[in-house]
Amino acid sequence: MLVVEDVTDGGEAVVVTARTRDVAVPCPVCGTPAAKVHGYHRRTTTDVPVDGRQVVVHLRVRRLVCPVPGCRRQTFREQIPGLLERHQRRTVRPADQMSQVARELCGRAAARLAGLLAVPCPAAPRCAICGAHHCRNKPSRG
Fold it and tell me: Is the pTM of this model over 0.70?
């Protein structure tokens, strides 16, 4: 679904420039395939680290026009399911990895391992017991 246009070595990070393919995408409201481009939008996200360095992805996505005149969504940005969800600043893979590390190790050990793997910790609320992100532990009442 993506076309990689360039990969550069940015020293501390590997920078990937990519775009979506020029294919029709269904409107999220009515489901009618849309191919007419209204404009382009650039998203910058991170992916799983390579060789201890962060991977930064500059992705160009299209803003499309719904061809149905009565559709309440006249324009929409194409989404990339399985790779990048709406409003995310990192791809699905590092988010899943960090969530699994936090669940398994919990607390400071998870933060240390994430640092060694060059996986950025999410800025989310911390667990009241161990301080980990997305921890399943619940505070005991007693």
Answer: no
